[in-house]
Design a protein that fits this description.
single chain, mainly alpha, mRNA_splic_Cwf21_dom, Cwf21 domain family protein
Amino acid sequence: MSSNKGSGRSGHIEKNVIGKRGSSQFYATRQQQKQDELVKERLRRREDSMRNARSSIAKHDELRKVSVACAELEEELESKGTSEDEIKRAVMALRTKLTNEKEDEHDDRQNKVYSYQPRFASK
């Protein structure tokens, strides 16, 4: 274009400095982005470890409740004068029953399917 007459442009040329990689401002923003990414990664790892710790504590509490229930049953049967073999069978039956219930609850929570029905029926 030999002249800018009739082209709709004034002829003013602007320099695009933002995309220039050699500037000190670009380096500072890039370093800040790296720091932000590191902080986010640390937070994510910390949340994962906390989640794992909470789940192991919950699992331990559930097992503790089962063992307490079995111990109570054992004490009750001993006070009634039941034989050792019957006590062992009753305790094992209770333990398997409670652990199966806990596993079923856990499976139900994982495999829960939500169905969303429309609020108003369409005509």
